[in-house]
Amino acid sequence: YRRWQALVGSGPTFQRLMEFHRAHRLALLTHGDRSYRELESLVARAQRRNLRRVGEEYARLFITALTRRATRARHVDVLRCAAGYLKKYLSANEKAELLDVIGAYRRGVMPLAAPIARLRRYVRRHPDPRLLTQTYLCPDPTEFNLRYRG
Fold first, then answer.
1. Exposure class string for 79-98: b at 16+ Cβ within 10 A, else e
2. pLDDT band for position 140 (50/70/90)?
3. Which of 21, 25, 6 lies closest to 54 in space, CA to CA?
4. How many helices (H) and strands (E) does the chain have?
5. HEC letters along 78-97
């Protein structure tokens, strides 16, 4: 919400809305496919509509999406998706290690922070443009505490 307010305060444009949406794709997917698809559709149609109305609808749908609980299974799907973006850059050992850490999280043996940290390390080493701006991989401290508790 803070990032959304910053976007609104900076004078939203269709380009900034698309960048905001792109940066939150993985995070949105952890809250469910339906909300993600609704937001994708809204952003795809945005230039043919009034920006103020699109912004209001986007904010409403975005907040609604975040009210749905992010599940372990959805986190695993998102982690695997992110790993897929890196597959052409990683060695066989790195891929296996990453999938092992994701699997350990899936089984409840490791916290979500473990595969996120591993992904961040690989993204720093192999900067894939689809992952560089993902808020899911670099949450602010408040989000981090909310996401990783219990």
1. beebbebbeeebeeebbeeb
2. low
3. 21
4. 10, 0
5. HHHHHHHHHCCCCCHHHHHH
Alpha carbons 150 and 135: distance in angstroms, whole number: 21
Tens of pLDDT, residue by residue over 1-45, are 888 889 888 888 899 999 999 999 999 999 998 989 999 999 988
Rounded to whole angstroms, the Cα distance separating 31 from 38 reads 12
Residue 150's contacts (CB-CB under 8 Å, 6 or more residues apart) are none
Given a cut of 70, is residue 110 above it in pLDDT? yes
C-alpha 78/C-alpha 82 separation (Å) is 6
